Amino acid sequence: MGNRITELFEIQTPIIQAGMIWASGWRLASAVSNAGGLGLLGAGSMYPDVLRHHIRSCRAATPHPFGVNVPMLYPDIDQLMAIIREERVPIVFTSAGNPAVWTPILKEQGITVVHVVSSLKFALKARDAGVDAVVAEGFEAGGHNGREETTTLTLIPAVKEKLDLPLIAAGGIATGRAMLAAMVLGADGVQVGSRFVASEEASSHPAFKQSVVDAGEGDTRLTLKELAPVRLIKNKFYRDVEAAYAKGAGPEDLRQLLGRARAKKGMFEGDLEEGELEIGQVASLIHEILPAAEIVRRMLAEFDTARREVPGLLS
After folding, report:
1. What is the pLDDT of residues 130-157, one digit of tens each?
2. In the chain, which end has fewer C-beta atoms inside a 10 angstrom radius, N or C?
3. Are 22 and 267 in contact, with CB atoms under 8 Å apart?
4. Complete DSSP assignment for 125-161
């Protein structure tokens, strides 16, 4: 399946595994790359020396391209970017910040740069910063999200209308049918997060993976917009946040309630009550934990089946 995304990344199929914190280590990234997609290491939950270890381990586990996702709000971003350049990582996805800061520096060293956005306004800023492609992530997505609450169904055609860069759709995509729908709307490929959290190779805690499988419709909610919007499974911590809002909590109150390492506690250590459990709305469509290669295979098979069905639907 060749198009602008497969050519840009030199991969076989336009499925990109999102660089989720506490889930996207070298085992998952290399498994997705070996299956023909693009695996990403999630640097947002890694100290600099840990990132170096994962880069080297991933390179040893796959001969295929892989990349690193870097949230630009990370406190040691200078050290992360130095390691990425030293280790000659070929592809970097940036998010949660101004792409103009790092894009020229990375591109000077021949690194392909992609920026994740949640609105058309930020997509245009990414284009002006010189990125090679854009990920447009809808409101349905898990983890940190945009404040605009623009859904994938609306965001992808809006960005496609104004942008001529390779476009990757994200948010609510866990099946081949959703992949086909995103590409019909104008995307050249898809970025998949929640589905790969519930994979055997994901570094997230088994209890968190099972909570994703168990999640039903309406079990996630976007919250903490005053700090950084994040979509969470409704657990005790989420209910504590809602109770704080009901009492009129401001940003500082919410910051104290959040504390430190809340996401690690939930997603990596498996505390399903007090931890922050970041996942997308599409969790309700995820029913089992599978090997990453099987997830890719099933998505492609369903994509092909759905594509063959389209002429019949139109007639």
Report:
1. 999 999 999 999 887 777 789 999 999 9
2. C
3. yes
4. HHHHHT-SEEEEE-TT-SEE--SS---HHHHHHHHHH
pLDDT of 163 higher than 80: yes
pLDDT at 30: 98
Cα–Cα distance measured from residue 91 to residue 191, given in angstroms and rounded to the nearest whole number: 14
Q: Residue 315 pLDDT more than 70?
A: no
Q: Using CA atoms, how far apart are residues 31 and 179, in angstroms rounded to an integer?
A: 20
Element (H, E) at 115: strand 112-117
Structure tokens, 165:
């860069």
| Residues contacting residue 107 through CB under 8 Å, at least 6 positions apart | 113, 130, 132
* Euclidean distance between CA atoms 27 and 201, whole angstroms: 6
9-203+283-302: which CATH number, 2.60.40.1230, 3.40.50.300, 3.20.20.70, 1.10.260.40? 3.20.20.70
CA-CA distance, 25 to 204, in Å (whole number)? Answer: 9
Question: Quick one: tokens of 145?
Answer: 């999200």
Extents of the domains making up the chain: 9-203+283-302, 217-280
246-279, pLDDT tens digit by residue? Answer: 999 999 999 999 998 899 999 999 999 999 999 9
